[in-house]
Amino acid sequence: MFLYHRPRPLSRTRGDCELVLVERSEVTPRLMAVVSGKHSLFYSVPAKNASVPSLLIALILLLIAEGLEAESVDDGRNQLFVGILRDEAVERINQLAKISDADGYLERTFLSPASVKAAELIIQWMQDAGLRTWVDQMGNVHGRSDALNTTAETLLIGSHLDTVVDAGKFDGSLGIICAISALKVLKTNGKLHKLSRPVEVIAFSDEEGVRFQSTFLGSAAIAGQLPASALRTFDKNGATIQDVLKENSFEGSDASLLQVKYDPESVWGYIEVHIEQGPVLESLGSPLGIVEGIAGQTRLKVKVSGSQGHAGTVPMLMRQDPMAAAAELIVNFTVDIRAMDDDDRGAIVSEFSRQVYQICDNRMVNCTIEHKHTAEAVHCDSELSQQLKQAAHSTVEKMPRKIKGEVPMLMSGAGHDAMAMSHLTKVGMLFVRCRGGISHSPDEYASDNDVWAAGLALLHFLDRHVSGDYMSS
């Protein structure tokens, strides 16, 4: 008799195969062609009532064949991951980088023509991943996959689609694309609708605050932190946020702003994938890092004013020269103050203000200090951060170049949408290595494999939500 191992056709299940015994007379050229494939094994059993050693050999061959079949399935799965999480993701990041309001450099501001076009493309990609899509009253783009458990809170994943002037192509876009790509893999594997909780990707309409000098417009609205008075904020051309919303077919009313706000009871948590915008991960040789917290910020605008004095008639000690006071100030302070401890930051701001006023008093000039922006420090949720760390660790073990040591934990000195979203729910962030720590520049760069690592880590994280491992968290 003859024995051969035959993988089941079109099977993706590990080790899903069968052992076939046929009479010698049944071995035809057609059968030989079938069993001569890459992962089929053919073995001659000497008799119909085969001996124990012969059957043991057959069993060993079967186990080998199962290993080969599993390897084949793993290879196919890995190629699928690479195709979606790296190759397609990088191509989509490049596509978004071509959508700009400026010629020769990248610029997309709140609800500009380029931002609207980018939003339309993101909607197409979300739908390609099997997500239900809509745009809210602040221009935020949403893509959602519902869950088997209709009462479970929603996991939100997001980043921003707007840019600074003369921007890099990874800031914001990376987080949106990685989230869509990870969910597309789940769709391709038939797992998307097996999620234990709903998952929603949000592309925020404005984080940078370039157009209206007010950061986090999109995420602050969702978190219920954007006051109705913000709708009356002007841009440099005299248009208000309300005007711009109405020009783009949104209501632009106080009531419509309330519609954007999410109920905290409906949200499980928020995570964000973002380039580090610093050199720490690169110096450590790690593609990924977990954010422990985001520094609080205070931005001040200082105005010094005095009065002119006639040359030769006003003594130097009686002159009210604002330039002399400003020169003394300029060499002694910075107006962008950041710290993880809000009390420390507050103390620094107070001491800074005291010294500014003292110098101005000594020079007999007037001084005003305007608080342009204040954001409290945010501490990322420890449990959520640990889950992201586990996902990142599983990822780096699978990368072509093994990474030794722990996935690093680090602080963020830059602001992110997670700061606004922390008023709504617990937050976690995954940082991705960027070359030289350069950001907000055309030189901003993350390698294709690091984009892949980010998407794969997010996929590992979401896989746990398919199994329900995080339901009790």
Automatic annotation (TrEMBL):
One of its GO terms (molecular function) is metal ion binding. Signal peptide: none annotated. One of its GO terms (biological process) is purine nucleobase metabolic process. Its cofactor is Mn(2+). CDD domains: M20_bAS. Pfam families: Peptidase_M20. Keywords: Hydrolase, Manganese, Metal-binding, Purine metabolism. Homodimer. NCBIfam families: hydantase. This is Peptidase M20 dimerisation domain-containing protein. It comes from Ensete ventricosum. The lineage of its organism: Eukaryota, Viridiplantae, Streptophyta, Embryophyta, Tracheophyta.
